[in-house]
């Protein structure tokens, strides 16, 4: 920042950074380090920055969304409270009280509510404790209690559609414990919420001990300090060194997740198989993706099918791709107009066809789950107004393979594409009925029935297919596998996909409405 900041968006920051500048929390190390070192100019710089921001944001027109959104206002209120406390209430008390009142007055639970409310209400709790206003302190604490129960569902899963943000929520809530203690307010309800979240987080960890990249989740591991010594989450965070391994191999969570595996520990010297299915998208928040029905598959230590992650929080074409149906292992539907001779269909700016109109995001349901002798997860996908999609995902330990059965019914003339997102580091070799996937550690076979030429795409400046996030804002190249067909109005198409890792490739056949998969032994799966 210049000596006299203008506080306007900076070209060196993304859209997220240009809002967080207004949170002012990044300036607190000037105060903390300056006070410890006795560095008066450093402390003065902190107070000057806070004062400069306040003087330039007095008018309503400067209080834009980037200034007033809960996470930014919460960060700023933490900072103002700290500044008021250190300056003995001489300079910033009025601004602290005004901001704190705004946060409790604006608080509500509803569509779009997410972790940002923890910032706003947590800072209001600290501010009113400092100000000695016990009535409003208790309002802020009650708001936080309600928020914790809202964000963390009864079975421990998250409302935000992202395991990473579930983990972030847990850390935000646990960091409130000393504030509650200092304010003399009971922390019991927050504690109960964080405890039920831990089982879900353990289940969301793949055999390489990374959080599965669903929604805005980047490749990350859990930190052990956040979990009880004997907990399942501690086991997942320490890669089995501490705690106890979870007992369940198949979990369905209300947040819209299925996490399943054949073991929590290695099998014959290799990592176990893990897969996930996104079975619903009942909530609308900033970090959920359009990924209903999306599948991930991890076996023999390699993620063969994965989710793309978040990239950056901005309005770029790559971010749009990452959160869209096109960025996930799902059926993508494009509505087709009646054929007209001599005219070609235009493609979108991403090099991909424009998708059909979307239906309501909550128009889906899980039809079945976890039936002997195999796991079966079925969902009805009404994402599109032009088509109805049924996806069943089967897994059987005997064949150690994933069987995905997709049925598409066209309500209008459509183009339907089945897409598979293969992460970076996995080579893809296509053939007429599938593909071979290879990594330095393992190989997998993908077999297709139901027709449709198999194509693979790599990302480029003109086509987004296959981009993955390795870390926030860091892109790596994966591969998109696709097959598709034009389906006339009223017609149906069934696609069967089999994916298995290991030395022995499976074979697949279809007869009388039953899929038969052979790999050392034969298992049959009914069509949905």
For the residues shown, what is the average pLDDT? 91
Question: How much strand content do the residues show?
Answer: 25-35%
Q: How many beta-strand runs?
A: 22
Largest sheet: 8 strands, antiparallel
Euclidean distance between termini CA atoms: 60 Å
Specify the structural class: alpha+beta
Low-confidence stretches: 345-352
Give the radius of gyration: 26 Å
Main sheet: which strands, in order across? 7-8-9-10-19-14-13-12
Specify the helix fraction band.
25-40%
The coarse overall form would be elongated
User: How many helical stretches?
Assistant: 13
Provide a quick synopsis of the model.
By secondary structure, the protein is α+β, with helices and mostly antiparallel strands.
Write structural notes for this entry:
This protein is of the alpha+beta class. The chain has 13 helices and 22 strands. The chain has helices at 15-20, 28-37, 40-56, 65-68, 70-86, 93-106, 116-131, 134-151, 163-174, 177-183, 188-203, 232-237, 317-323; strands at residues 250-253, 257-261, 274-278, 295-299, 302-305, 331-335, 364-369, 375-381, 387-396, 401-410, 414-422, 427-431, 434-438, 443-449, 455-457, 467-471, 474-477, 479-487, 492-501, 507-511, 514-519, 521-526. The strands form five sheets. It has an eight-stranded antiparallel β-sheet with strand order 7-8-9-10-19-14-13-12, with no helix packed on it. Strands 1-2-3-4-5 form a five-stranded antiparallel β-sheet, with no helix packed on it. Strand 9 (387-396) and strand 10 form a beta hairpin. The longest helix is centred in the N-terminal third of the chain and has 18 residues, at 134-151. It starts with 14 loop residues before the first helix and ends with a strand. 47% of the residues are buried. Mean pLDDT is 91; it is low at 345-352.
